[in-house]
Amino acid sequence: MKQRKDWSVLLGAAFLMATSAVGPGFLTQTTVFTQSLGASFGFVILASVLIDLGVQLNIWRIIAVAEKRAPDIANIVLPGLGSLIAVLIVLGGLAFNIGNVAGAGLGLEVLFGITPQMGALLTAAMAIAIFLVKEAGKAMDRFAQIMGLLMIISIVYVAVTSGPPVGEALVRTVAPTKIDFMSIITLVGGTVGGYITFAGGHRLLDAGVKGQAALPQVTSSAASGITVASIIRVFLFLASLGVISQGLAIDAGNPTASVFKLAAGQIGYKLFGVVMFSAAITSVIGSAYTSVTFLRSFHAGISRNENRIIIGFILLSTLIFVLVGKPVSLLILAGALNGFILPITLGTMLVAAHRKSVVGEYRHPLFLTFCGLLVVLVMAWMSSRVFIEQAHTLFA
Where are the transmembrane segments (predicted)? Predict the structure, then answer.
């Protein structure tokens, strides 16, 4: 019975991470970059998956062995660093969550014809209901699994109906005609940047899956989370590529909805509503939960009132959207910004992995350390290049 419980927790953490990553921004980014890069976007996906694995396997293992949340670990490495990281991640999580609430409202508008604002309010009510349940953790795990499977089934159907050039996609995945650093940073930032990379690790810690003995389960759960997110990304890419290869024009105002409708007609358009709502509401839950876990280190009262603060986080995100409206390019920008934060958070965790004051006698695998360090250097290099390019464009 315990083994079944452990499997449920591991799968729940994997899907929490994956569905936190697969939000409205994820859908928009994938479609927009497929438009600009075509089949070569497959290379961007491959590069991002390899980087994602290097990030997740390092961070989740270190959290499990240290038996502490990320900000507490960072504060041991350098006093005050954990608090700084917590502030950055909570602000990024709030920015993402405003877009997530907006995306859920849009999904319900497609499905039922209600206004996005009304859809956002209904989404907030459903998300809050999960944290009012006595065993909110289990409810969150199960909800993430159901919504994740619903997304996969819907996107696979649309990808098949669009008839993508799979052979060309496979070739360009390893031999791209164009490499775009901004797209790689944005994808990585949107998949494992900011709060997202810690969603599953913190969930496992809260569920009691920790210590060196739990490392095989932690590694399996981390890899499963990346696999689920990657499957969704690949099929969404193929769906978009199938539409583009037919020479059909994608509506710039709502590119992902356009792809679904062009690929599968009115059924596809309704499936877009299902996917958008599923992606958005699970991201609302994942963002709120993980962001608040970063606040625990500030005051003991936060842990005692965690669910109430999570509910407040959801309400604040919804209120900002309803009053201000959907930020124009917030989703893609938030993904890119999280890509900039990633070298700081991963670098800190790698230092912690070799501090006895954090991990005791545990010896972090040199291979994972090397991979993690490589990710830090590559992401820092690409981020600096993108920053210089953006600055040059701004002041030219």
Answer: 37-55, 76-98, 110-131, 143-161, 181-201, 222-249, 269-295, 307-324, 330-353, 365-388
